Hints:
This protein is mainly beta. It has strands at residues 15-20, 26-30, 35-40, 45-50, 57-62, 68-72, 77-82, 87-92, 99-104, 110-114, 119-123, 131-134, 138-145, 150-157, 160-167, 175-176. The chain has a four-stranded antiparallel β-sheet with strand order 1-2-3-4, with no helix packed on it. A four-stranded antiparallel β-sheet has the order 5-6-7-8, with no helix packed on it. Strand 15 and strand 16 form a beta hairpin.
Amino acid sequence: AGMVSEWAVPTPKFARDPAPGPDGNIYIAVMTGNRIARFEPATQRFVEWDLPAGARPHGLVVDAEGIVWYTGNGNGTIGRLDPKTGKVSEFKAPSGGDPHTIVFDADGNLWFTVQGGQRVGRQHPRAADAGDVGQGEVARRLRRIDAAGGAEADVRERAAEALQRADATAGFGGEELEALPAMFQPAHQLA
Length: 191
């Protein structure tokens, strides 16, 4: 039998989507508190960073250098927090909207869904701007990124449901996995 331990987040305002960092610390989006929190298991201590007004972070991931990337669900951005300096940068998603779920692919690109914008987006962490990949009826959850850089998401059109794969190596044209109308029409080709 194991033991479960819990720690209270200092800003208890919809803490969500914990993600481990390379340093062993756990990073947490505090959506309605408009913050990112870090829990340090070794000291059982929290540190928090305020984000730009209205960001409302939803999802986050931490890269190999310890940089925290988050979706600004409230202000249509992809955010970057350097925990060493506390510096926060934001990159506006071209479609605006409400970025939701964020993941890395095997090449280090960030993929994200835009919850109400019917889009999947990609941003290279070193790029200055986010770019839309396509205009599908993309649901709220990016399901996975495969090793070849393909993104699978639940997609819905009217009453039909299917799984679709956007192939990042094929000009973002996409590939239907089940019979649905072509749903990923390239909006922007990223270099």
